[in-house]
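step: validate -> pass
step: tokenize input -> pass
step: predict -> running
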Amino acid sequence: MKFLLVFDFDHTIVDENSDTWIVKCAPEKKLPNGLRNSYRPGHWTEYMGRVFVYLGDNGVKEDEMKRTMTTIPFTAGMVDLLGFIGKNKELFDCIIVSDSNTVFIDWILKAADFHKVFDEVFTNPAVFSSTGCLTVQNFHAHHCAKCPKNLCKRKVLKEFLDKQLERGVSYTQIVYIGDGGNDLCPVMFLKKDDIAMPRQGYTLEKKISQLAQDLSPVACSVVVWSSALDIMSYLKLLIKE
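step: predict -> pass
step: emit ->
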């Protein structure tokens, strides 16, 4: 009996958007209007690439970025929740599927000593170039019309589950914890025994309730959370059942 916990990262594990938090490193802690207005819907990764070039051009170094990123606050109750999962790893496999990037997530999890809680992290690959500029790439290519160009979380989840099955691992239930519009696609892939846990007041919760109003509700159970302690209480019930 094993549960799979799937976490989004921004506004779920951390209480901010890691990509916009990095702007604190910019001159006067803001981006020029031209750069800010260059974002095109569905093309966030390319936009962040331009932000990183701007930071690099302004002499922002890796260690300064790292210092800034490790001050990002965790969502209320999240430190307790991740501690609880870490103590019960024999019951939980735990992955992150995020539109952030490998460098930011790695820094933040390692600084708080939570990297061992997660079995895998699926996010946009990032590295520092020879000139010291952070570069980021799309996670993969996909054909899903609902998702941003660089990442379909349903595809990531499906491929992970297929790979686990090949290794002989299947899950009693999947618990999907997220907040954003791009979390709806994987939630719609979940089965009736699975659980979607949207963050209260955020886009994912609104989209799930809209579907219910349109009489095409998601197949899985839905449990809303506002503090990660709500998630922890729910997981404690699950493992008692």
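step: describe -> The mean pLDDT is 95.
step: cleanup -> pass
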